[in-house]
User: What shape does this take?
Amino acid sequence: MSATQSNPWYSPLLSLRWRLAVVYSALFGIFVILLSIFLYSSISNLLLYRAQQAFPLRAQALGTQLVQEVCTASSPQSLVSFIQHIPPSDVDQIYLLDHAGKVIASSSNSLLKQPFPYLNAAFFAHESNGTKTSFNGHNSGSTTSIGLLLPLQPSSGCLFPRILPAYIAFLTSYNDEQNTLRTILLMLGITSAFMIVLGALIISFFTAIMFKPLRQVTRATRALARGNLEQRVPLLQSNDEIAELAASFNQMADRIQQMFAAQQASERRAQRFVSDASHELRTPITSLRGFTEVLIRGAKDDPETVQRVLGLMKNEAERMTELVNNLLTLARLDEGHVPATNDIDLIEMVIECQQHIRKQSPGSYKLSLELVTSDRYSIRGNREQIKQMLLVLLDNAVKYGCSGEQKEILLRLDRPEARCQMQVIDYGDGITQEDLPHVFERFYRGRNAVDRPAPISGTGLGLAIALAIAQAYRGTITVCSSPGQETIFTISFPGL
Ligand code: ADP
Assistant: This one.
């Protein structure tokens, strides 16, 4: 039972690209916010510091100005008009106090005749040293007022010293600076929000560009998984990890395609091999059945016919045995089954093969041996298999190379570089250009074997077995043939 899992609607937002964009945007946002906080606090400190420095100086100047005006003015009303004409940008409130701390005039006409609320009466009772005093004003909302109390001393030659109040008090909440700071905070907030949004858009745009090749790799992987083995990712000019991934993907796809093609070819070969083998086995089996029928139908009563039919049956049985043995050898070599190996002296083995072939295929041919160097001819391999390979070539040379007038076979042993080379040369009709590329294929039989009045016996497996044996011991086997002149089979193995 299988359960299909559908992706949630927000799954695209969980993608690596989006997560990276969110992380980068968050980092950028934090940076912008921290920068704004730093800018705001720097500007705020600077503005308030300057205002705090300027406030006492301005208060002092206004106090001095008041003393001068009162001492020279013609009427006491000048006190009220003086404090009411001071611009509000300098200070919020101005109070004139008598010696007991009672308000005798104020810029807003408030608290008149009342004790000054920001300093207690005890302060005025004991205060006689004539120094300025700071105090905290009222709280209006979030702003706190700062106050400064200055004692006033009549100047020398003052016309109205009795009119002069004892103290002047100033209150300020730095309104101008606070307004400026509020505007700066608003601007910084808007700018930060804009920069964060813009930054997030730019980051997601660039991550989209950065991740484009990755999406191509993903698409290509899906296509490959669906069976499109041709699918490749366009190679990138850059040298980064994504370009490496794309190159590795292409290499992997190449490899898979090659392996798939090799597997298909191997399956086709196996199918052909099985059908060829069945076909080849059917012929002797059919013949054996035919001969048995002949015997059953009465030929058994004629001793001469019986002898002849039994001889034919023996031939067919031998042919079948050879075929089955060859198939078994090829199947074992295909499996990679390599029997025990040992050092083989090739000269000794070639002489042994010469004797064997003369016994197996007697005839009037001449089989000679040529040693090109006096070096040692030793290789590592399984003696029986190497011998079988050489016998296949010698047997073919006798069968196909000595069927005409030329009846000479040359076995040449050489040591080019670090290899041991054996050549089997005959001077028969040779292999045609059409047959030459196919002679190592399984069950392939050339025209010179079958297109003749009396076909030469064989299974078409000899050279295929020779090739498989050569490959099993890191050797090679090649053929070159000039029809009517010479046919050379060359075997080469790494020498010892
Ligand atoms: P078989 O000998 O049983 O036909 P082989 O695999 O040994 O099968 O050889 C394949 C084919 O190669 C032969 O049918 C023949 O046409 C050709 N051949 C092999 N050796 C020679 C040779 N020395 N001269 C000419 N033709 C050859």
